[in-house]
Amino acid sequence: MKRAELAALIQQKQSFLCVGLDTDPNKLPSHLSKDAAGVLAFNKAIIESTLPFTVSYKLNIAFYEAMGTAGWELLEETINMIPRDQAFIIADAKRGDIGNTAARYAEAFFTTFPCHAVTVNPYMGEDSVTPFLGHEGKWAIVLGLTSNKGANDIELLRLENGKFVFEQAIETIAGYGSDQDLMFVVGATQPEYFERIRKVAPNHFLLIPGVGAQGGQLEDLQPLMTQDVGVLVNSSRKIIYASSGEDFAEAARVEAARMQKAMAGMMD
Amino acid sequence: MKRAELAALIQQKQSFLCVGLDTDPNKLPSHLSKDAAGVLAFNKAIIESTLPFTVSYKLNIAFYEAMGTAGWELLEETINMIPRDQAFIIADAKRGDIGNTAARYAEAFFTTFPCHAVTVNPYMGEDSVTPFLGHEGKWAIVLGLTSNKGANDIELLRLENGKFVFEQAIETIAGYGSDQDLMFVVGATQPEYFERIRKVAPNHFLLIPGVGAQGGQLEDLQPLMTQDVGVLVNSSRKIIYASSGEDFAEAARVEAARMQKAMAGMMD
């Protein structure tokens, strides 16, 4: 999906919501089996109920990988259930390796499991990111500043040149691609750094976790928005686990619709 | 596998070699089929021929993941072919995510695919590493200073405090575990930084790629060795692709034996 197509989808649905399918078999409603079949039924119902309100689904690969081979079948089936022209599909894999290995990960998530984008870790630098770039309609979403406590350990250290590590990482990696094949992950819980981020990535789309369960506020994200919106805001648990009963899909729909409405208000 | 067991294996085989199973279906000898069955036959022959000379196998997960569900079956079958008491099994996955997601990755590579160790990316800090620690006989092998060109982009930047990013990363992460559940990746191509590395991780085992194809020299690694050796040196392509003919396993055996002999000389 190219940038213009994503932007059109955002306008059409008046939403920049990304629903995170971090589906945990142990958190399924009790009427569903706690296995791959149960997760598939759950994902199907969530996708059907939230599709009008979301422009993207993010699959947290760890949850599928933990189930072994059955999990990878489930991942493939889930991806195939999402209408590819109605939602931007993100493999949240946070892969990062070099050269021919990174090319294999790109093959895995752009071809074998046909997603539009894959999250990538920048620690190893240029040759760990470039194999994901230059594939038309495909995106690398590179970790910038994350929303977790551990962000203080490396990302938020100051370099000799006065910049933060995350800031230099975004600036350097931005130079290897363009805002047509590269996005960055920026946690909603870090508003004091938003201005710095838009200085080094003025027009890149940002994938933003941390709204809701982690404490980030949707309203705080306004300074990050670009002319074509330029942000995708992820919500996982707050939507998919809105109810633990048989009405889980309806409860997810209500929560997704609530977020869509708030987002439409920010797009005026 | 606990540290004392790994150290005993190293003494017994007089080797600290790790054979990288980065098996590419397109590089298989022509008498093998270029699919999962071909890779499995190849891996089986390589493991059988190299086992007397190596203390570890490292599976480059990208190569399996790129084959989709069939690749994960293949990964499982390959892991099950390795005698667990005769080799330390590393999932080279370079995973890195937070909290409950990282716990899922630990489950994937410690339980679902029963490896002894998994490589982990430190960019997101504490909560992306600690879920891999404290599992008896299991190890997180965290990226420190890698052997690729892109290491210059982030790892080798200088911090305000005078340290390099990789150096601070190793020091900080070392504080979250011990030399009984934590190792670091250090590229053989970076000898000028070896002293700094042993200052912040004096007794941790190090996993060292970059000898051979990438230009690192085995002899240069002596300053990194500890009383119980403390290093695992990986070689992938130079061993597994030593010959592209029907004699590939014999050629791999010869190359692994050559490296083992050189290593035995360094252990005197």
Low-confidence stretches of chain A: none
CATH architecture of chain A: Alpha-Beta Barrel
If interface size is counted as residues with C-beta under 8 Å from the partner's C-beta, which chains form the largest one?
Answer: A-B, 58 and 58 residues
Please give the oligomerization state of what you see.
Answer: homodimer
Shape of chain A: globular
Number of strands of chain A: 8
Mean pLDDT of chain A: 96
CATH topology term of chain A: TIM Barrel
Number of domains of chain A: 1
Helicity range of chain A: 25-40%
Question: Structural class from helices and strands of chain A?
Answer: alpha/beta
In angstroms, what is the radius of gyration of chain A? 18 Å
Overall CATH class of chain A: Alpha Beta
CATH homologous superfamily grouping of chain A: Aldolase class I
Compressed to H and E, one letter per element, the order of chain A equals HEHEHHEHEHEHEHEEHH
What share of the residues of chain A does DSSP label as strand, in percent?
15-25%
